[in-house]
Amino acid sequence: MVIARMSGQLRKLAGGNNEVEIEAGDVKECITNLEKQFPGIESRLCNEKGLVLESINIYVNGDNIRSLKDLSTKLKEGDEVDFMSAFAAG
Amino acid sequence: MLSSKEKERYNRQLLIEDLGIEGQERLKKSKVFIAGAGGLGSPISIYLGAAGVGTLKIVDQDIISLSNMNRQILYNSIDIGRKKAYVAKEKLEALNPEIKVEVVSKTITKDNIFEFIDGVDLIMDAMDNFPARYILNDAAFEKNIPFIYGGVYGLEGALTTMIPGKTVCLRCIVNDAPSESTPPVLGSAPGVIGCLQSIEAIKYLSGVGSLLKNRLMIFDGFNMRFREVKLSPDLRCSVCAQK
């Protein structure tokens, strides 16, 4: 199990839970399994080509997956996956 | 030189060994641009003013409204209908008559930003939307002026300190920000983030401590937790890749 965490606007997509434990071997699978639990969440994270939206950052244990292996970034037990949209209000 | 009144006013922070008289004098000589006088701009300007930052330049075109009252602590209900910039000047000069407060009641644009940041040591982001933040970011990196980002949503928020040539810029972090006409905000969330931004500013200006560089600090008020993520430069970034 990994911990998937939603921040900002994404939080409400996970039913107001900002931390969810989920089975996943990589980030792509993490999103697929989140979609099963919270239908509609995938389209707020990825475009129709399956690429992460420019407005979204995904971090695995604090590192942006864009500097790792993107959606193919491997996950192991206990990893923390942060899904973040920007905090825009002031 | 600090006057005896200033030494008394700042007595508690002068006791911070790393700050001391020299750090306080550096604060006094500093000029900070605060972009926005709302939920973030209120705690930022109050704490920078109270700490003795010599000159605050504040730009905000807005008029105080009832829906500002849950978070914009510079203002009282009696101020509703007045321009934020002018009320902010009154409140901050009353708080600390030793500082200068320059205000402009205008919208910040790509065309006027350079006149506002001319001669400032630091730019504080206290805006409520990303298009305006990108104007600040691009100007900060063009003029090599440090820029402290803060933003909130609901009970959450984030901040980072950006130094041109040494850190990522805001466009490296998010280059296509979401827009939402009226995002939810609990007043104390910009209170937390604005206070942390003011600590970063005071550290940068006085030379105390180490800065939140290439790290995004995230405040999660739902679970009362702070966490951090690492920020990496976007090598394709049009603003900072060549710096």
What's the arrangement of secondary structure elements?
The complex is a heterodimer of chains A (90) and B (243).
Chain A: E1 2-6, E2 19-22, H1 27-37, H2 42-45, E3 56-60, E4 63-64, E5 80-85
Chain B: H1 4-9, H2 11-14, H3 20-28, E1 31-35, H4 41-51, E2 55-59, H5 84-95, E3 100-104, H6 113-117, E4 122-125, H7 130-142, E5 147-153, E6 156-162, H8 170-173, H9 188-206, E7 215-220, E8 225-230
Parallel strand pairs in B: 1-2, 1-4, 2-3, 4-5
Antiparallel strand pairs in B: 5-6, 6-7, 7-8
Index terms:
heterodimer; A: 90 residues; alpha+beta; Ubiquitin-like (UB roll); 5-stranded mixed sheet; 2 helices; 5 strands; 24% strand; globular; B: 243 residues; alpha/beta; Rossmann fold; 8-stranded mixed sheet; 34% helix; 19% strand
Oligomer: heterodimer
- SS content category of chain B: alpha/beta
Just give the CATH class of chain B.
Alpha Beta
Main beta sheet strand tally, sense and closure of chain B: 8 strands, mixed
Lateral strand order in the biggest sheet of chain A: 2-1-5-3-4
The N- and C-terminal alpha carbons of chain B lie at a distance of: 36 Å
Q: What percent strand of chain A? A: 15-25%
**Domains of chain A (count):** 1
Helix percentage of chain A: 10-25%
CATH topology of chain A: Ubiquitin-like (UB roll)
Q: Low-confidence segments of chain A, ≥5 residues, pLDDT <50? A: none
Describe this structure in words.
The complex is a heterodimer of chains A (90) and B (243). Chain A is an alpha+beta fold and 90 residues long. Chain A contains two helices and five strands; from the N terminus they run E-E-H-H-E-E-E. Chain A has a single domain, classed as Ubiquitin-like (UB roll) (Roll), CATH 3.10.20. Chain A has helices spanning 27-37, 42-45; strands at residues 2-6, 19-22, 56-60, 63-64, 80-85. A five-stranded mixed β-sheet of chain A has the order 2-1-5-3-4. The longest helix of chain A is centred in the middle third of the chain and has 11 residues, at 27-37. The relative contact order of chain A is 0.26. Chain B has 243 residues and is an alpha/beta fold. Chain B has one domain: Rossmann fold, CATH 3.40.50.720. Chain B has helices spanning 4-9, 11-14, 20-28, 41-51, 84-95, 113-117, 130-142, 170-173, 188-206, and strands at residues 31-35, 55-59, 100-104, 122-125, 147-153, 156-162, 215-220, 225-230. Chain B has an eight-stranded mixed β-sheet with strand order 3-2-1-4-5-6-7-8, with helices on both faces. In chain B, strand 5 and strand 6 (156-162) form a beta hairpin. In chain B, helix 4 (41-51) packs parallel to helix 5 (84-95) and helix 4 (41-51) runs parallel beside helix 9 (188-206). Chain B starts with a helix and ends in a 13-residue tail after the last strand. The chains are: A alpha+beta (90), B alpha/beta (243). Chain A binds chain B through residues 7-9, 11, 18-19, 53-55, 57, 59, 62-64, 66-67, 82, 84-90, and chain B through 36, 38-41, 125-130, 150-154, 156-158, 173-180, 183-185, 190, 218, 220, 222-223, 227-232, 234.
